[in-house]
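Training component of the fellowship. As part of building independent skills, the fellow (R.M.) carried out the full modelling exercise for a liganded target. The chosen ligand was nicotinamide-adenine-dinucleotide. The inputs are recorded below so that the supervisory panel can assess the work.
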Amino acid sequence: MSTVATATSLEEILARLAPAHGVHIGGAWLRGDLGTYDVDDPADKAVLAAVGNAGADQATAAVDAAAAAAAGWAATPPRRRSEILHRAFELMRRDADELATLICAENGKSVADARAEVAYAGEFFRWFAEEAVRIDGSFGSAPAGGVRSVVTRRPVGIAALVTPWNFPAAMATRKIAPALAAGCTVVLKPAAETPLTAFAVARLLAEAGVPAGVVNVVPTTEPDDVVGTWLADPRVRKISFTGSTGVGRHLLRQAADRVLNASMELGGNAPFVVTEDADVVAAVDGAMVAKFRGGGQACTAANRLYVHVAVAEEFTALLAQRVSALVVGRGAEPGTEIGPLINARAVDRVNGLLDDALAGGARVVARAEVPDGLSGYFLAPTVVADVAPDARLVQEEIFAPVAPIVTWDDEDTLVELVNDSEMGLAAYVFAGDLKRALQLAERIDAGMVGINRGLVSDPSAPFGGLKQSGLGREGAHEGLEEYQETQYFSVDWS
Ligand code: NAD
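Fellow's submitted model of the complex:
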């Protein structure tokens, strides 16, 4: 079992969480109706905890609880909802070390990355505490005169939230916070790999004053049963999903049967463009963040690096130097920069992509050292140059610390390559001339473009993708609107 140098040990945190009673319905912490399943530490494959495993019956019970709490929560004054969310933000700051310990243990990322995630996750509570009291509407006069239109917003209703393992805290808070701000109650299914952080967040919300039944958590190894039950339940009015495009499509098909309101945050394949006039050192700094944060397991991760031929040699040499020096190890170990991947399947998949690229003429220019004695799902951070533009390594989402470099010299061809993808989540442009960077960014099919920076995630900005990277936005004011319906009153007071 992992250890980490924080005040409270992982064992103590787990004992308090009681994961075997992790099914959280109507304020109670219950055993799973399917028993328990094991959650592993990807750094050593050891069992961290036996977690309550819920099936379809508990999925329905969670909706019962969310339905019972719905009217009361929707009628709770926005100021009060805001205060509770603000308290949740403060509690996340108080518990930051413990949450980071949990994230490190079940996801494997480094303590530094886990702490950064907790800070980011907490900010959604603060942002939506502020948005909760900014629920707006509008007023208009009909052109023909006499009739006035009063436009209001109401909570969409019970929201089913489904989240991935790569940001166990932030993907949950990015959905829970706006839902609660808008006055919705929720049922959350965390990823089977990382339910522990979700339990901790739910406990903290209860402590902040969220009434029983407003947030329900249903961990399961049977996602089709649980989420399928929710999508078929007429009381559920919304699905918000973050995960792979394949599963997103599957859920959209089910949502179509009930014409459900759907928000989808799906896969990415972010291009990272460096122009000939870019500050190469800054671009390498940006690439280290965009590519290697969380070990490359981010939907916004730079997936393919397009570097102008004029600076390719310098960029590649500098990046190789930085990547060779990355410290790989257990995330919980102080000083670790890159932890393991999530599971053996991920390691095999990425090795397959690498083999394919090397067979197509690519070459490895840097590889960090993976220390002996590590038994988890480790994969050495790697830089690969001379990658063919059609290699699977640049066509598919890598989701690992592997940076493929493709060189370019003609901007129109570059834009064609960049946009030749069904994904359109994030992109990055590093250029000396800001006007040119913006012109280039406007030509890129991506919902978010980092310009001269390797990070785009910000709770105050609309996060989301174009094309098959998703539908809707999270964060910003748009994030609140995803949990609202517009209603308008046509009024004749002539
Ligand atoms: P995944 O699609 O396998 O799983 C995501 C969630 O869906 C998990 O909770 C999983 O249990 C659940 N799920 C799986 N099969 C299901 C089914 N048949 N019915 C209902 N639920 C089901 O994705 P993942 O491997 O956990 O996460 C990685 C993917 O998520 C990557 O593609 C990444 O780009 C994407 N992602 C996107 C964003 C974004 O904001 N756009 C953020 C993080 C991750």
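The panel noted the following from the submitted structure. Residues 162-166, 171, 189, 191-192, 223-224, 227, 242-244, 247, 250-251, 265-268, 299, 397, 425, 465, 470 surround nicotinamide-adenine-dinucleotide (CB under 6 Å). Residues 1-6 have pLDDT under 50 and may be disordered.
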